[in-house]
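User: For my dataset I need records formatted as: sequence, then structure tokens, nothing else. Please produce one.
Assistant:
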Amino acid sequence: MKKIFATMLVVFLAVGSAYAMDLTYTGEYFVRGNYEDNLSSVNDDSDRGSHMYYDHEFVLEPTFTVSDATNIRAKLKFNDVTWDEANRGSEDPKEASQNIMIDRLFGTHTFGTGTQFQGGLMTAGEWAYKFGDSSTGAYRARINQPLGDSTLIFILQKDKEGTVSGGFPVEGENTESKDKDEYLLGWVGKVGNIDILPLIGYITDGSTNTDAGSSDTNTTMVIDLGAGGEHGMIGWEAEIKYLSLNFDGTDAATGGNTDGFSVYGAYAGAWFNLGAVTPGIKLAYGSYDEEDGSFAYGGEYDSGGMMIMGENVGFGPGNTDPTDETVAGATTITVYADFAANESLSFFAGLAYLMSNSSDDGPWKDASAYELDVKGTYKITDNVSYNIDMGYASVDWDEDGMGAEDPDGITKIQHKLTITF
């Protein structure tokens, strides 16, 4: 990977020199110390003690500008690891932790009509206010078409490429039907002073169908609607998401509804700009049905500053194990406040209460949890900041259904130095 990266840089620099390509970049480096107590043992009643470690990451985002209408963007991650002897610099190229990861790489061209084409490895899995979303990298072809003050967006996304025998297709194999593809149509605009962000998507996935002669695929219909705005000192945002899944392409669906099911979720948040203090509230709901399963909040949803539940610890009947690290099939209420003491020093405090939406006999029947978070940030310079974040969470579940007593409280403390440029 290092040799590939070095070769790529040489090519980019050579092309940039020949065609007067401009290179600009932004980036971030952080180093962080972590303290965790009982974080990994929430799925039983044991107390596994505390754990302390350091980690760091360097992200570089270069933009190669060919002209006002054309550019190439990349996002590179360097040495994103926990500090460990095995993660130190090494001449051994087989050390995966030493590799440079090309996280994003795509090109953009804007035509004279205003139509913009983007293609390559782009950020995927995000829309509106990221409720129910889990961000990832995916290969996309995207068209952005301006329509007055709004933009119509079409995306073709390749998640998986169907496999073929020996690298070559053979008679009787329908390899195209083994792909996983997404077709997304969205619109970003305003109605009055309200932002409106509707999205409709259709996903086909034949990767789970191992019958070479079959073209059956799983399909998913996605409907997502976000809206938000600011009116004086009050800001708000809301999002509704609906998923309808069909399992025609699954060889052997197990448990629940084997034909398919539908799930949905809703989110609403509001905040009040009172000068130095900005209080807010967030409400989130994920559906649950014993047959149909549950709606998950997703890894990108900002639940109001929670740093344990939904980040390191899962909650709700959508999780077979609480360490699944997501909140699903649950209702969450979060109140929080940001306080700017001065231009350099700011604080955050938040309290979240989670309730399972399952009334079925089982581990998550009438389960609940709460989390309290306190954070502080000191801006040393315009490019350097220091954070101290502390969180505490407690979970209460059905002891008979879970097969364990309520776990001990969970503590997480972090302090981090961040450098941006």
